[in-house]
Amino acid sequence: MFTGIVVAIGRIVDAKPQGDGLRLSLDAATLGMDDVAIGDSIAIQGVCHTVVARSATGFEVDTSRATLSVTAGLEKGRDVNLEKSLRLADRLGGHLVSGHVDGVGTVVTSEELGGSARLEIDAPGELARYIARKGSIAVDGVSLTVNSVEGARFEINLIPHTRAVTTLGRLAKGARVNLEVDIMARYVERLGSA
Fold it and tell me: What's the pTM?
C-alpha cells in the first residue's frame, strides 16, 4: 500500500528485455536508498513494483508485458514519480493507494492559474462511476482531489508544491497518465451488488 504522496522524482535509465516484459533500471538518488531492500515495493508512476536489485543511488525492477500494456510512462529516459511503500507507523497524508493502476487517462486541458494548474483528464469510460467530486484519485501515483466530474472527464488542481515535487507539473495536453480510482469506491460498488 501507498499514500499517493510522492517522495522523489527518479529517471528510468535503462529498459532491457526480461522474460515477456522489461527490467527497468532507475536512478533514484533523491529517494534515499539506505532503507530499501531487495523485495521491497516501490511505486513508479503509481505502479507497484518489487525491487530486484539495488545500489547506493538506484534500483531495478521487473515489469511484465501485461503491466506495460495497461500503463503509461514506463519508458527509458522518462522522469518518474517514486514512493516507497507505506509502513503502519507512517502518516497517511494522501489516501490509500494500492499501486494497481485501473487505466490510462489523457490530459485534455492544461491551464496555468498563477502558479497552480488546472487539468482536465479523460478517464476510460468504465472508470467514470468510481470518480466523484471531492473524492480522491491517483494520477501517475499522486493523490489528488477531484474538483469536478462530468461523464468520464474530471478536473484536478495542482498547487505549486505538487507541480514542483512531482512530474505532474510537466503534463501538457495529450499526455497519457496512469489512473487509480479510490479503493473505497470499488468496495462500495461490490457491497452494493452483493
Answer: 0.94
